[in-house]
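[User] Once you have settled down, look closely at the record that follows, and write a paragraph about the fold.
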Amino acid sequence: MTKKILFGLTLIASLTACTEDYKSWQSPAKVEQPAAITFSDGSVTATGVAINLNTQTEDSVKVVNLSAPSASDAAYKPVYTITLGNTEYQLDANGRMAAADLQEYVAATFGRNPNIERTFDATVNMWVSNGATNVKTATSSAFQIKAYAQAPEIEQRYYVTGSINGWNNSNTDYVLTNDGTDPYTNPTFTCRIPVPADGSNIEFKMTPESGLGGDWSKCLAAGEEAGTFNYDNVGNNLFIEVEEGAKFYDLTFKMLDQTWSYTAVKFNEYIYEIGNETGWSTPHALRSPSFDGKYQGYYFLNGDFKFKPNENDWNGDWGQKPDNAPYGQLVQEGEWNCWLENGENFYQIDVDLSAMTYALTPVNSISIIGTVNGNWDTDTDLTYNQETGAWEVTTQLNAGAMKFRMNHDWAISWGGANGDPKAYDNLTQYSGKDLDVTEAGTYKIELFITYEGNNKVVITKQ
């Protein structure tokens, strides 16, 4: 449809400025009225063609078909602008505007997804000018422009290639991803990387999936300004100055903004499980002895549960990632309660906050093993007491050595910490010392297993 912007416009050919000294209004000077300037009709027509800014090679782009009016005085020329939203941009007499201006509007209004056609209203404004005077004369009816935003090529995955993996760009240990969604719909990519064992600073680039195995040409590299990056391996290495106490760094890359940031992850010593087993009233501590985000504890569970970072409040709690996420993945926002796949039981509970995962291992048995039973091949099983929280047995023991092991297997066993065979009140599952029983007899054994540094056994002779 043709949009008429002018209809026989008439314009006063000049504007009069006061240049004489003050004169009384009683004898005003006569001023000749200037001749009227007339314009023939002009028109505005939508092109009907979608503009793909990704394929633009010129600085300007045609956005409208424009038919300029002619003036009865050649000194007056039409000048045009185009209004998109609330912003006015320059438009030439051929209906072209700066491609950068169109990109700015489309990206700010709709985002940079280059795969979606955007449709929006525009109006053309006409001004007339003789070089000294500009007068706005008409605004067209609204018409529509169709355009695709310009965006860099974003791949689905990028991999850290740097000092933490020997600059091996075939290595895929540390992947930057947006959870597999459309990278133009969700252009924020994240990754967690470890701090080197020696605490040294980290240098790296991001290798796209298509460049694995030796092609560096499309790597993400450092931009000139802090917190920015460049595509196509233009720039120096990205760099993190490692803070004292940091165990990991969380990386965030905003692919369309071409910005990146990092956050030091310093794990607490404890997190807490809470759930149905205590009516959601009593938290149970899980410990990370190395402060590396890997927590473990041993507790009886009989229903749903969650994890939280603080003993006395729910701020920042973690739960099962919802919907179709694999069992054992943790999130902090929009989480579900965790649940039991194997029913109520006593469990070894492992949480890895560096990977945001949890795992439950049923503890089907804990037993005494050692020369107190006559040899190291015979297990004496204990029974879990839900009331006391202890694994218990009353049994005859020989004088000799003993340890406690889980599920009749040596993968997990408990002995005296710090190489002490008498450390009944401080049992460890890491190379524990055989415990001494110095006198044969009947004993009541009460074993309390919760977390490393809090495990103990009470041995009472009957």
Observations:
- Helices lie at 99-110.
- Residues 366-461 form a domain with the Immunoglobulin-like fold (CATH 2.60.40).
